[in-house]
Write a structure and sequence with these properties.
alpha/beta; Rossmann fold; 2 domains; seven-stranded parallel beta sheet; two-stranded parallel sheet; 15% strand; globular; binds nicotinamide-adenine-dinucleotide; SDR; 3-hydroxybutyrate dehydrogenase; 3-hydroxybutyrate dehydrogenase activity
């Protein structure tokens, strides 16, 4: 359903971003991958995408804290493919700690990567989307864009912020066949989650299953992690023609977390 479309997914060398890139490529889109990682692993991902889906994909190493690198990444997409139909702002980092103990540079980094980078990609991509007659912007927010949780001040502030940006961009582009939405995942199963379980099991002296239910998924009523494929499938739907009237929305995939 995305045949002929060109997608740029920030932070797509692992986790949710890579899941979205795979889903888009399987649906027929060409994809620009971005993020950090070992060159051989990134090459493997690109080759894997090509082999499994036949999709064309390229890589940009742009650092989402650097506006000039973000501009080069958007230009690379436009120069390589001649258009940009789908922009996914997914790159993100997390920091845990009480607000009065968050290092100032950590606050700045969380805001830069999780929020300001989306401002830059959006301002740089919109002229091309308008020129080509439409587009899709999907911001990967979080359940913490809709509710608070102690020890997550910078992250929750950035994620609440991106929902505000999503609404305003949706309103400014409403008559231009462009949509802008935020996906708000709860806990998603990524390589980091596995490491987190092992670490928490050790810290709390609890068995694995109990760490999952009582610590990691304490806020998630369905007591299961979402899979990256679920986020990829939903992003693919939002990027498709069928989702033309969904705009300005913050859409949870959180097993009921924000229904509390
Ligand atoms: P991840 O750590 O697996 O992936 C993050 C990606 O961002 C990686 O590709 C990394 O290289 C990239 N990245 C980090 N800093 C960057 C920078 N400065 N410039 C460019 N790329 C950078 O994380 P994930 O769990 O897949 O998270 C992806 C997004 O989903 C984030 O925005 C996160 O906040 C959000 N999210 C994740 C969960 C979850 O449970 N995993 C839940 C809700 C929201």
């Amino acid at each position: 359903i995305l045949d002929g479309k060109v997608a740029l997914v920030t932070g797509s060398t692992s986790g949710i971003g890579l899941g979205i890139a795979r889903a888009f490529a399987s649906a027929g889109a060409s994809v620009v991958i971005n993020g950090f990682g070992k060159p051989e692993e990134i090459n493997d991902s690109l080759e894997g995408l090509q082999r499994e889906t036949g999709a064309k994909s390229i890589y940009s190493a742009a650092d989402m804290t650097k506006p000039d690198e973000i501009a080069r990444m958007v230009n690379l997409a436009l120069e390589t493919f001649g258009r940009l139909d789908i922009l996914v702002n997914n790159a993100g980092i997390f920091h845990v700690g009480p607000v009065d103990q968050v290092p100032v540079e950590k606050w700045d980094a969380v805001l830069a990567i999780n929020l300001s980078s989306a401002f830059h990609t959006i301002r740089l991509a919109l002229p091309a989307m308008r020129h080509q007659g439409g587009g899709r912007i999907i911001n990967i927010a979080s359940a913490l864009a809709l509710v608070g949780l102690p020890l997550t001040s910078a992250y929750a502030a950035a994620k609440h912020g991106i929902v505000g940006l999503t609404k305003v961009v949706a309103l400014e582009t409403a008559e231009q066949t462009i949509t802008c939405n935020a996906i708000c995942p709860g806990n998603v199963w990524t390589p980091l989650a596995e490491a987190h379980i092992a670490e928490q099991a050790k810290t709390h002296g609890l068995p694995r299953e109990e760490v999952i239910r009582k610590v990691l998924l304490a806020e998630q009523p369905n007591k299961r992690f979402a899979m990256v494929e679920e986020i990829g499938a939903f992003a693919t739907f939002l990027a498709s023609d069928a989702a033309a009237s969904i705009t300005g929305a913050a859409l949870p995939i959180d097993g009921g977390w924000t229904a509390h």
